[in-house]
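Protocol step 4 of 6: structure prediction from sequence.
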Amino acid sequence: MASLTRISAPFFLLLLLICSINGVSALGIDYGQLGDNLLPPQQVVSLLRSNNISKARIFDTDPQILTAFANSDIQLIVTVENTMLSQLSNPQAAIQWVTTRIKPYLPATKITHIMIGNELDATDLLASLVSAMSSIQKALSQLGLDSHIKVSSPFSYGVMGESYPPSAGSFKSDVSDVMLQALQFLSTTKSSFWINAYPYFVYKGNSKEIPLDYVLFSNAGSSAGMTDPSSNLHYDNLLYAQVDAVIYAIKALGFDDIEVKVGETGWPSKGDDDELGAILENAALYNGNLLKRQLTNEGTPLQPTVDVYVFALFNENKKAGPSSERNFGLFQPDGTVVYNVGLTGYASATNVPPSPPSQSQTKPPITPPSY
């Protein structure tokens, strides 16, 4: 069992104050909606603002959420659903999609990225990826929005063929052609490569070989961890090793100018009896120690800084799979906390007023056309 690194709320409040003065942004949050008992979007905005969370990602373009985020100053990443990739490969469909799903909410809602799909690793989806990315990019350019919104895609870690040691990082051979095309697009548009990385799942399947301290960021300031025999770089946690393996895989395909960001990571606070490590203490340590590092703007051994989005904002009761899948949230569906990771104010939605509706934004249609 890992030694308990205590997460002190007053310590984090001080860190957040220092970071806000210096303009350092903390981690973002993934706002999933697979629940039938979640707070309405307006109260979600209040919850985020009261906890000083300034970056969020949603997994669609829900009109009610986009409207609720207006004038909140929260940076928002939106997502094209996997089922729409083939349709949006058509340039005309892409223009119509951006015109109806994105443009009506700008600039009041601060949309910073459009993610094309989520966790793509299936051949049929990957085949449509780059053409959909290109069509959406062209649509943004034609509508004069390309200077404000970046286009990318968050990949499953399943696209990696090798990741240990990090310097041996490479993509699977059956996706290398698509990855090459995607990387060329990202390099040309100066966009980032997003990866979803979960040390929890690695530990769950390899607990006898991987120390818990290493996956929970509990080795800070010590020589524990692993040293890459080729690069001689030292890693005190698994997430950074995973990120750097992706960087090496990108470099192996000839690209040195693409930043890697983490679209999802997290740890479940509860699981089934056979889900090793899925307990509240480990979740608090993982996300709390990660937040601590984000607040100091820490990067990996290969990359000076790394943006990270934590999955998830809420426990979502409609997610399929084992119990852990429904217990990744920092908050319960009603906005009460699951555990304290040191967020500013550490407020629950039950004790903050809802954000006022935007008065400067024309209300768009609630049900956009599907393509």
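Step 5 (inspection) to follow. The longest strand covers residues 75-80.
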